[in-house]
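Format notes (please read before filing issues)

Several people have asked whether sequences and structure tokens are stored in separate files. They are not. Every record keeps both together, in the order shown below: the sequence lines, then the token lines. Line labels are part of the format and must not be stripped during preprocessing.
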Amino acid sequence: MSKQTTQLTTFTLPASEGESTSGNYLVKKYLFHWPLFLVCVVAFIIAAFFYLKITNPVYPILATLEFKGPTSSEGTVINKSGTEQQLDPISTPVIVENEIEVMQSKKLMYKVVNDLQLWVNYTSKDGSKSEDLYKKSPVNFQFIKKNGSIDGKGVKLEILIKSTNAFTLVDDQNGNKDFKYGTPIKSDFGSWQLLPTADISNYIGSSINVVIQDPDQVADSYQSKIKVELENKDAPFVNLSTSDEVPERGKDILNELMAQYKLDALSDKNKDAQKAIDFITLRLDSLKKDLTVDEKEIQEYKSNQGMTDIASQGQGFRDIRQANIKALNEAEIQLRILEGIEKSIAQSGGKISSLPPTSAYLSDPSLMALYDKLTDLEVKRTQLLATVPPGNPMFDPINEQIQTLQKAFKEKVAALKASQLAIKKQMQSFDAGIQSGLKKIPEQDRAYTAMKRNQESKEKIYTFLLEKREQIALRYASTVSDAEIVDDAHAGKAKWPKPSIVYALALILGLGAPVGLLYARESLNERISNRKQIEDAVKVPILGELSYQEDTEPIVVSQGRGKFAIGEQFRVLRTNLSHLHGTNDSGRVTLFTSSIGSEGKSFVSSNLSVTLAYASRKTIILEMDLRKPKISGVFNLSPEHEGISDYLTERNTNLDQLIQPSGIPGLDVLSSGQIEPNPSELLEKDKLDQLISSLRERYDDVIIDSPPIHLVTDALIIARTTDASVYMVRQGHTLKDELEFINEVDTSNRFPKFTIVFNGIKRDKFNYGYGYSNSYYSSYNTYTEKEKESFGSVLRGFLRRF
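Then the structure lines:
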């Protein structure tokens, strides 16, 4: 017979058993386990109640600090030179972001922890709740001598207050010991003592727990709780916040933190100011010494160069040279006049008849007086010549006087010329000296200017530092902090625990925990538990679903009332099988197989055969699991009877002798026969095709029970003779990995009209009852009796909802 390759595209169950939408699916899935949700919600609500009873409330603590004076953000340019900022640290603008980091530093918190002695904690037990005795402790722990550091867990001491004078140190290992207050006690961590406080009388007979911790670790703990925030970058207000179970302690921490910050900031400013003053003083002393050296150097230079004021001295040299030049010019003029007179005398033969016109510029009055006398005598002689002859003795005295005056005049001219020559030479020599002096002045000016510049530069620095030291000294004397407390630390309303939030969280956790538990349980389950897992993993249609039956009877389908639920499920499967085969109403061959054993293929194939027989369809079931036959045992037939293997080996080909009645009208059985060592080879023979063809002609339905295909290939060989194939998947037994194998089988088209039957469904065990309604079955209660349920079955069903 040719291989059937027609594929089934879809199959649906009746509306009463149809699965709900995805949303309803999830809701009903988890509502099925409502007892688990109820228990978890109640448990979490109870836990929340006790949590609220034993948990101490935590209070928010707030404070506000304002920065006064010049402030700056990290990106702002400060309008001061670097030198002024370094020399005047007091008035340097405050960078608020930097100060926030300082306030959150461990250094400050460490000081706070030590000042407030937060490394010692006192508590008393009041029932199940512990009370912190901050500032209310009846005793005060004090170290006398510390031995190293305390480990991370700290040291716990239990103190029993006996009276106002003595206490008992509870020690389970070495025994209890009584001590008086103030008595030194030696322990592994050091020597210590307890001192009574004003509240000692209120705690007589009470047990006090004292916990001593490492201040470093305590500082780390409190530091992590501190938040310092700049509310607005344009306004220098900083908000400090923390939280604590004891509001008084939280307020003390913030107040002490702000006080320590202001004290440290002021101390740092004073230190910086003192450093600046010391530096300036040291620099002033150095400059003073340098100035003294420079001034002495200038003094020595002036003395060596004969300088007083180089500017006035240069001007004097210039004035003297100008006067010298003038005098030299005058001497030159006089020489020219005298030379003109000598020339005139020489031309007149030694007679002085008249002087040149320039003689009027002669500066010597004696020469001019001689000239006037000589001129008068010449005039007188000329007058006498007019009346007296030249040889007259009267001319002798006049001529003698003239000669004498001429000689005196010549000698005077020569003397004046020699005098003017000497004056000229002296003036020229003096001018050369003045010019030499003037040439030295630029070099002297350069050297003097360099020395003066160096001295003036140091003098300016000296003056600047002197003024700056006075300014810093004045500010240092009146230094105030840049920060001012706007709001002291104050506590708000308890922020945790809030009953409404705690109970809401308890409700959420009470609902979420079962969901997580069920999801994890389902995710960790490697076996198929519901239909949706099949539908999500494979495209093979599901022909039907069958419930799990606890009965030991292999045939659970009856013609009468009987076990109505499973019977109706097989009837639905019978109907779906008819739709699967379509128009083919007779000689239908259906193969039943599975992945592995114990998935219910023999159970389903035998009970479906019975159902078909009850529907007046002539049916035969073939026991073709030639390795482990089960069908004969289902119908209580002899396993020794000849069957399929005998037919295939041709030991007996008489079907009438091989076919056995099942005991149910309309249903026959063809058993496997003698077990052969080579069943796969037998099934490959054409004899199998002949067998199926013969059975098609005799029966309406031929049901084949075949071996699992994941173990042997028998079912794949038999498939060539069938019209439809039904693959068994059993809830809680078939592995999820087998779904991938089913996809491979479906993709290879090795089975005709490949479908799945979901078998062995325990609706109340595998979260499966939520998807189905029992209305379809209960509607038949008018003519079928409802099965009675025992208390044990009800209890088991209830417990399965967990």
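For reference, the curators noted about this record: The first strand starts at residue 59 and ends at 67. Residues 59-269 form one domain.
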